Amino acid sequence: MKNMQILIDTNVILDWLMHREPFSENAKYIMEEAMFGNVEGYLTAHTFSDLFYILRKDIDVSKRKLLLLLLCEYFHIIVENKETIRMALLNERWNDLEDGLQMQCAIEKNLDYIVTRNKKDFSSSKVKAILPEEWIELYKRQE
Fold it and tell me: What is the pTM of this model?
C-alpha cells in the first residue's frame, strides 16, 4: 500500500501549535505521523503566511520563524502558481479563497485527503475532506 498523502489544513496546525482544546491531541497525532514520515504531509505555501500572521499575537517573530522553518523541514510544500490561482478562482463551488486554494492544491498533487476541522467548507472538493478524528480512525485501521 502506498504511503498516504494528506493536505493538513491551517486550523489543524493551529490546534497543534496553540494547544487548542479539545482538538490539540488529534492535531498532535496527525502532525507527528507526518513529521516522523509515517504519512506524507503536505502544506500549501499560503499556509505559511496565514500562520505567521495569525500567530503574531501569541508568538514573537523569531519563534514564529523557527516554527515555520520546522514545518519546512518535515512537510512537502505545494507552491501555488498562476494556474493554481486561476483554477481556484474559476471554481464556483467555494466561498473562501483560502479553501479554494487548498482544494486546488490537493487536486494538483492528487492527494488522498484534506484533513480539516471545517469539513463543510470542503463539501465540493474533488479530494475528500476528513475530520482529524475520522482520519486517525481510518489511519489506525490501515496500520
Answer: 0.93
